[in-house]
Amino acid sequence: MSLKVRAQEKVERAGISNYSFDQDVLVMCGVRYTISACDCGEPDCDGVRLEKDATVIGRILQ
Ligand SMILES: [Zn+2]
Questions:
Q1: How far is the CA of 37 from the centre of ligand 1 (A)?
Q2: Quick check: is 59 in a domain?
């Protein structure tokens, strides 16, 4: 399973439906999150980590 699919499941489990993907970047509420693998080893870890992208993209919602 790709990281992108895992990230999508993670977001949907959190009850968030207004998200989209820009290439391999997850976009939620106008905030971009870089998807990376997580190997923290926590029992409840789903193996994916979302990190806020530092890039400022301004308003995407009109
Ligand atoms: Zn983890």
A1: 8
A2: no
